[in-house]
């Protein structure tokens, strides 16, 4: 039995269904805004989007601090909403509140060869980086969980950067294997390649909370200005008159992102030794703070009304679960397992 994607019909044309997820890590930073959230907002204008708070994935590295995850979810979802992700235009839901996901992981695990999981490029790298204690059964199997996340809502498109293509390819392989064994039940998703910029942190490395180099979206104006003041610049530009290399300077990256109209002029003055880093950082902080001001205001309002987040997650999880139930019923039927979800619940 093939389960066609069921999505809203607008002006006679069915919107493509898009699935994306994010592991809850608490408050997000400017890199998340430029790399993912702006894309979430844009995609939900043109597609039927399912945005998952991937709290089961968070357990792969936080199984020993699981009580922190509820707060991490709240902070992250507040940032999503404050960044403009509109719950009326997409479905926002919590992974662990869809028990069908866990059941389908068991079913798909039975037909996924371990060798496919072991060859995932990040598997061995992350064990080296994070230590052998994360080498759990769940961590090895996280690509199956990822495949189910997409397949269970019948996602047709998944926004990914080039570096994530191997992960999506594994999802496609798992889906193809299932469909080959049991019939064309699952939708094989395609990548929606996004030009995710590599956002530099205050020390010039990739912006990441684990490097402690982030500008958080929730940071105040004063904290943001101070972080920018201490930001790395082109190390060859010591004095104001030294010619600089803006293309290697994190400060210039943020001018391009938040002060684009002036970027060419800034680059020219930097290269010509007509601009000092102290002055340029103060100017960048001003533009970054101006861009983040509406976000901070929306964040303040959401923090003051915690029930809004609860309601959005309740509603979205209910909607996602309805879709997940249908998919799981199709999967079980194709495999010859007994009982629809309604019948199983009656037992
Ligand atoms: S003048 Fe500005 S762009 Fe040039 S190196 Fe200094 S901070 Fe970077």
Notes on the structure:
The protein is mainly alpha-helical and 347 residues long. The longest helix has 30 residues, at 306-335. β1 and β2 form a beta hairpin. The strands form three sheets. The chain has a three-stranded parallel beta sheet. A two-stranded antiparallel ribbon has the order 1-2. The protein has two domains: 9-199 and 305-346, HUPs (Rossmann fold, 3-Layer(aba) Sandwich); 219-302, Tyrosyl-Transfer RNA Synthetase (Orthogonal Bundle), CATH 1.10.240. Residues 1-11 have low confidence and may be disordered. The chain has helices spanning 30-46, 55-62, 69-82, 99-109, 114-118, 121-130, 137-140, 142-152, 165-182, 221-229, 250-258, 260-271, 277-304, 306-335, 341-346; strands at 9-10, 13-14, 17-22, 48-53, 90-94, 157-160, 190-193. The structure holds iron/sulfur cluster (SF4). Iron/sulfur cluster (SF4) binds at residues 233-234, 237, 244, 246, 249, 251-252, 270, 275, 277, 280-281.
């Amino acid at each position: 039995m093939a389960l066609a994607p069921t999505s809203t019909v607008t002006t006679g044309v069915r919107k493509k269904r898009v699935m994306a997820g994010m592991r809850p890590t608490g408050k997000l930073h400017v890199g998340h805004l430029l790399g993912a959230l702006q894309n979430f907002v844009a995609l939900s204008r043109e597609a039927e989007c399912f945005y998952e708070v991937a709290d089961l994935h968070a357990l792969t590295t936080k199984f020993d601090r699981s009580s922190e995850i509820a707060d991490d979810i709240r902070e992250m979802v507040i940032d999503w909403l404050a960044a403009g992700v509109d719950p009326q235009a997409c479905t926002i839901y919590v992974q662990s509140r869809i028990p069908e996901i866990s059941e389908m992981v068991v079913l798909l695990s039975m037909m996924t060869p371990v060798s496919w999981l072991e060859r995932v490029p990040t598997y061995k790298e992350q064990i080296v980086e994070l230590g052998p204690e994360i080498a759990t059964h769940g961590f090895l199997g996280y690509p199956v969980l990822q495949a189910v996340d997409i397949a269970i809502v019948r996602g047709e498109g998944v926004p990914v950067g080039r570096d994530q293509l191997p992960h999506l390819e594994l999802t496609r392989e798992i889906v193809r294997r299932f469909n080959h064994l049991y019939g064309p039940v699952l939708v094989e998703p395609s990548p929606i390649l996004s030009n995710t910029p590599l956002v530099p942190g205050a020390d010039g490395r990739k912006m990441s909370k684990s490097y402690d180099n982030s500008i958080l979206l929730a940071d105040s104006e004063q904290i943001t200005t101070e972080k920018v003041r201490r930001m790395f610049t082109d190390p060859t530009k010591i004095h104001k008159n030294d010619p600089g290399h803006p293309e290697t300077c994190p400060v210039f990256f943020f001018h391009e992102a938040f002060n684009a109209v002036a970027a060419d002029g800034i680059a020219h003055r930097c290269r010509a030794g007509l601009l000092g880093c102290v002055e340029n950082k103060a100017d960048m902080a001003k533009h970054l703070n101006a861009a983040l001001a509406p976000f901070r205001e929306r964040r303040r309002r959401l923090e003051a009304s915690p029930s809004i987040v609860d309601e959005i997650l309740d509603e979205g999880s209910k909607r996602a679960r309805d879709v997940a139930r249908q998919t799981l019923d199709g999967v079980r039927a194709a495999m010859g397992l007994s009982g629809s979800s309604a019948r199983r619940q009656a037992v």
